[in-house]
Design brief:
The protein is an alpha/beta fold and 236 residues long. The chain has 2 domains: 2-178, Ribonuclease H-like superfamily/Ribonuclease H (Nucleotidyltransferase, domain 5), CATH 3.30.420; 197-235, no CATH class. Helix content is 46%, strand content 12%. The chain has helices at residues 45-51, 55-58, 68-77, 87-95, 107-114, 122-128, 140-161, 167-178, 197-203, 205-216, 225-235; strands spanning 2-10, 19-26, 32-36, 80-84, 105-106. Strand 1 and strand 2 (19-26) form a beta hairpin. The radius of gyration is 19 Å and the shape is globular.
Length: 236
Amino acid sequence: MQLIYFDTETTGLEKDARLVQLAYKISKTGKTVNEYFKPPIPISYGAMAVHHITEKMVEEKPTFQGSTAQSELISLLADHIPVAHNATFDIQILKNDYVLIDKHIDTLRLARHLVTSEQYTLQYLRYFLNLDTDGMSHDAHGDVMVLEALFSHLFTLVQEKFALTNDDEILAKMLELTQTPVLLKTFSFGKYFGKTFAEVSLSDRGYLEWLHGSESKKDKAEQNEDMLHTLSYYLK
């Protein structure tokens, strides 16, 4: 399997946000692409504060939809597996511009399966795991460099944990784990921050029931699959 490590910077975090920067690296050739685009909607100030891409910076750039970059990416995806961190978000962003991704590897989901950590953001894992990379944070191109280093680390963990002997087996297991929800251990929000789900299931089952109902009412694309899986497990 050939891989594409990719990352996006966008107009915001909303479901209908659009692309302003796309970067990717092809595993086989080492070729990297890093391009900026003028989005069809405004860039939010919150997004600018994170990635520092302003309207002025992209006003002369092409739109992604209909661009050569779009057609090249669609062509690559026909025989390459995309790798991203929190891939669900990036996949939705590309879907907004008619680039559809089905099979993929998500390093966020993999890290939650394989690494015990307080946080799982790309940059936190970079330092927590002492990854050897110079990638700049909150820049699509820099994040791709960190992503590749994280993927390599997780690849080794999968190989060792499941005693796999060849690359195809390891990649197949990574694809499988990407589709497997994670059983969360502790709350990272709200009044039970830091408490385990097991503890709360015994002391306040009603809260878990309320939280499950609240999460279930969201649109499927906005649901936290790991949260729903965990709540369902402890409510059985």
